[in-house]
Amino acid sequence: MTRPDAPPGAVRQGSLREWNLALLLDRIAAADRPPSRAELAADTGLTRATVSAVVEDLLAGRLVAEAEPTPRAGAGRPSRGLVLATDGPAGLGLEVNVDYLAACVVDLAGRVRHHTVHRADLRPVSPAEALARLADLAARARADVAREGLTLAGAALAVPGLVDAAGLVRLAPNLGWRNVPVPALLAEGTPLTTHVDGVPPLVVDNEANLAALGELHAGPAGRASFLHVSGEVGVGAGIVLDGSLFRGTRGWSGEIGHLPVRPDGPTCRCGGRGCLETYAGQEAILAAAGLAGADLPADTATTRLAELAEAGDPAVRRALAEAGTALGVAVAGVVNLLDLDTVVLGGGYAPLAPWLRPPVLAEISRRVLTAAWSPVTVRPATLGATAAAVGGAGSVVRRILAHPAGWLARPS
Amino acid sequence: MTRPDAPPGAVRQGSLREWNLALLLDRIAAADRPPSRAELAADTGLTRATVSAVVEDLLAGRLVAEAEPTPRAGAGRPSRGLVLATDGPAGLGLEVNVDYLAACVVDLAGRVRHHTVHRADLRPVSPAEALARLADLAARARADVAREGLTLAGAALAVPGLVDAAGLVRLAPNLGWRNVPVPALLAEGTPLTTHVDGVPPLVVDNEANLAALGELHAGPAGRASFLHVSGEVGVGAGIVLDGSLFRGTRGWSGEIGHLPVRPDGPTCRCGGRGCLETYAGQEAILAAAGLAGADLPADTATTRLAELAEAGDPAVRRALAEAGTALGVAVAGVVNLLDLDTVVLGGGYAPLAPWLRPPVLAEISRRVLTAAWSPVTVRPATLGATAAAVGGAGSVVRRILAHPAGWLARPS
Fold first, then answer.
1. N or C: which end of chain B has fewer CB within 10 A?
2. Which UniProt keywords apply (chains A, B) (predicted)?
């Protein structure tokens, strides 16, 4: 048995009960099939009596549930396995992007139980107004899942920009936001979530970071390392090293959209020149394809580009080849620098992967010193456009699982 | 008191004595002034008797020594503080570069006790011949420090190329090496070092990695994060995150020299085009300054460039400004990606820093999204050209300090 990392709260408070709650919850979450109490005792080295008492707490607190009994060979009662509850605490994931708002709810078992996307060009809208609309989406999500017995224990909000530790958005260039105090504006009226000790009510994070976390959790458990590139109006990256998101010194890593592809190229919204975004951002691709000004919402634009490319439209094919080459130049630089063996094309790039992947691979094989010995995998994201909100909600769920005592001790 | 990370060997063997040896050695190494046995007992929570016994072992094994006694206020014997020994085990650092070989020895206290540089253009020389010459340098270093009572307990060799875990140099493009089995060739005759359990006799590593480690150990203790760029004929980087070298999935991180500055630029030795090395490698700078073909050894070339720049030579100034701009474009990309707040100009860049730094800073402020809120420091390396060999020798010393029992148990 591998013990999970000690949940910080549990160790700080030094309580054996908290440790045992987190340990058994971890074993139930990690099991291939619902484990019985006896199997949990064998797995953890705890006594059967301790396991039974802890499981009673987890059942009473709606953190786990008993699976349907499976008939057992031989005599005796059928064994009842334990599974994560799907009617207890849940995480709320939110996203503000340039042309949509999204809210989703993920339950303890990792299932998406609610997902709403509200499409609108948010550039002309004030941050306060955009966040008020998002609070409405959140309230609807909360009411919707409450009917199924779920309680929102925390929220994570994805923003396409630089966020500091207090949730202040320093800069979101494509939204035109500067120094926006998101938590104050978003939770101005009623709080979005129920207070649970150990789970922050609202974490604000960079969209590309949460999308990479979504992709990480959607994949097989383990210590994956990959670069997740999200292509929207802006282009961002999440760097996952050994199963953890790498955030950088101040939490501002991953700004691949501002890697210079041609140092004297077109001026970028960031003030630099020739940034990747000016070649492979969604607006650059649409302009190169002769579709600028079509004013399509992001996912429609992506769908339209994919349809036209599929149909063989030469201008669209050329635009995607050029964007893929620029993306490949930047990605090859990242691979040379960080020695990663997997690149995930996420967000709006996921549906365009059939056309972006070949030029990205071509640049990698031209420019990455080590490509000859160990090929780099380039693949579309599993989650695509929903990754950031799902990743945010999932990050809340992981906090609950790591600190179940906080949930059990919540005021009723 | 902060306990050091458990030394892997000690924990594996589960011996309390090994743990106590490593613990006290760590406290002696970390102390501001030589601690007494009583201070060590208070610091670690061990009994005075245990401390005395362990210190006896450390003294007998020449891992620590007693400092000169300092007179103490009040009655009693003067207290005798303990320091790391400077006549016991030491680390050997070696380097093969394009135009020099180097060997250095660092003692337990971190002092450089021997340093030889042998200048020669090694490109026309076979790997076997180059390594034979290096083995000679190593033998001379060993004999030299043996006279001062030092024993070489392990070696680390820096190579400007991609090295695998077994020490095979897959590719060193500027040396023209491919698949060179360095350990076999280098230690063909007699082994370079005395066998010590827990200390590999020879580690082969990338030059930029070892140079970054050298810089890390030369700075104040702590969890520093920085990008160390070594400018030689090739350009490499070592990425230090939170006080540790980041090596990437296969140990091949840091190839900043092959970050594309202009994707359609000059062809690079790596096969790519417009790599940083083609703009800011030493040969590119010499060519731009009108000094190509002068065929100066690396540090002479650097010294010459610095002298001419100091004297105001316009062609040299222009060449350095252009190289600095290209370096700044690449470094800005890295800072956008990894959110590092310190960039160290190392190797041949260190003496050229007065002229490279301004254009690097200009590109950072133009291109790094977050530069407005948190300025990036760009500074010359402390160690400069010797960093890789010193860093390699230092890495051996750190292994000895983490695993003193291996040294104490060596066959005499």
1. C
2. Kinase, Transferase
End-to-end CA distance of chain A: 35
Residue A273 contacts residue A260 (beta carbons within 8 Å) = yes
Name the residue among B380, B306, B374 with its Cα closest to residue B343: B380
Residues B26 and B112 in one domain: no
A94 three-state secondary structure = strand
Residue B234 shares a structural domain with residue B105: no
**Sheet with A89-96, edge to edge strand ranges:** A112-119, A100-107, A89-96, A151-159, A202-206
Q: How far is CA A233 from the centre of its chain?
A: 18
Q: Domain for residue A402, yes or no?
A: yes
Same domain, B77 and B118: no
Whichever domain contains B62, its CATH number is 1.10.10.10
CB-nearest to B249 from A251, A334, A341 is: A341
User: What is the b/e burial string over B226-253, where b = at least 16 CB atoms within 10 angstroms of the residue's CB?
Assistant: bbbbbbbbbbbbbbbbeeebbbbbbbbb
On whether both A78 and A95 belong to a single domain, the answer is no
Of B68, B84, B100, the one marking the end of a domain is: B84
pLDDT at residue number A205: 94
Write out pLDDT tens, residues B260-301.
Answer: 899 889 999 888 899 999 999 998 999 999 988 666 666 678
Share of chain A above pLDDT 70, in %: 91
- Interface ipTM > 0.85: no
Looking at residue B276, its amino acid is L
Residue A296 confidence (pLDDT) above 60: yes
Q: Residue A248: which of B253, B340, B366 has the nearest Cβ?
A: B340
Structural domain boundaries enclosing A34: 8-84
Length of chain A, in residues: 412
Report the residue of chain A nearest B336, measured CA to CA: A255
B271 token code pair: 């096969």
B170 shares a domain with B74 = no
**A390 touches A110 (CB < 8 A):** no
Task: Identify the CATH number of the domain in which residue B102 sits.
Answer: 3.30.420.40
H helices within B196-276, ranges in order? Answer: 207-218
Give the distance from CA B322 to its chain's centroid.
28
For chain A, give the longest Cα–Cα distance: 78
Q: Is residue B270 located within the same domain as residue B347?
A: yes
Interface subset of B 285-344, CB within 8 angstroms of A: 325, 329-330, 332-334, 336-341
**Whether A369 and B171 lie within 8 Å, measured CB to CB:** yes
Retrieve residue B341's tokens.
Answer: 């707040």
Q: Do B258 and A368 touch (CB under 8 A)?
A: yes
Would you call B175 an interface residue with chain A, using a CB distance cutoff of 8 Å? Answer: no
CB contact B374 to A (< 8 Å): yes
Contact B316, B301 (CB under 8 A): no
Interacting residues of A241 by C-beta distance below 8 A, sequence separation 6+: A225, A338, B246
